[in-house]
Design brief:
- Helices cover about 75% and strands about 0% of the residues.
- With about 220 residues, it is mainly alpha-helical.
- The protein has a domain at about 80-215.
Length: about 220
């Protein structure tokens, strides 16, 4: 090989050697540009905003599905002044009826064993008083029950009281209808039934009164 050829061969080798580091450096720079930027300290465990919002929405949806949603506050029920007046009348009439029950039970038992005209008149007078108070309580009680129908507080107690008192109303009507007669000088066979129905009605009414009086109403 001639001197001129060797010279060209040496120049080509030198140029190839100089080009390889430049190409390697360029490859490293391109690779570095493709890599993500270095994460700063404290940001490693911090989720992206979109991920945090998705997690929060998923937790909220799960809470709603599991019944964790806060229930709305109960609606306030306004009562009229007439309701309060009827409630006071109802309570006073109830308190007045309780001692009449005791007097009527005593007179009825006494009449059952020793019938006299004086005891009979007293028995009828007390029965009339109970009937009048029951009429007042029935009107005021049913009226207030209708007005309080949207109030959930004490609803079960009000209905229990009302059903007991309406049952007692029916019982007292039956008691009056079953009253024994003495027109022929002797008690009718209905005297025992009359007394049984009367005591049952008194028991129902007393229980109904106590349900409300002891319940703070």
């Amino acid at each position: 090989m001639g001197t001129h050829a060797w010279r060209h061969l040496m120049v080509g080798a030198v140029l190839l050697t100089m080009a390889c580091p430049a190409r390697a450096q360029s490859s490293e720079e391109n690779a570095g540009a493709a890599l993500p930027a270095t994460v700063e300290a404290g940001d490693v465990d911090r989720p992206a905003p979109s991920i945090a919002l998705a997690v929060r929405d998923a937790a909220r949806d799960e809470s709603v599905e599991l019944g964790g949603q806060t229930a709305p506050p109960p609606r306030a029920v306004e009562y009229s002044d007439a309701y309060r007046l009827r409630a006071r009348i109802h309570k006073v009439a109830s308190l007045a009826t309780l001692p009449l029950f005791g007097a009527e039970a005593f007179l009825g038992q006494s009449l059952y064993s020793d019938r006299t005209s004086g005891k009979k008149d007293a028995h009828l007078a007390v029965a009339a008083g109970i009937g009048a108070l029951f009429a007042v309580n029935t009107v005021t009680g049913v009226w207030n029950l209708v007005e309080a129908r949207h109030d959930p507080n004490g609803s079960r107690r009000r209905w229990a009281h009302s059903l007991l008192m309406l049952g007692a109303d029916a019982g007292f009507v039956a008691t009056a209808a079953l009253g024994p007669s003495s027109e022929h000088g002797q008690l009718e066979a209905s005297a025992g039934t009359h007394r049984a129905v009367a005591f049952t009605s008194i028991g129902l009414a007393t229980t109904g009164y106590l349900v409300m009086l002891l319940g703070g109403h």
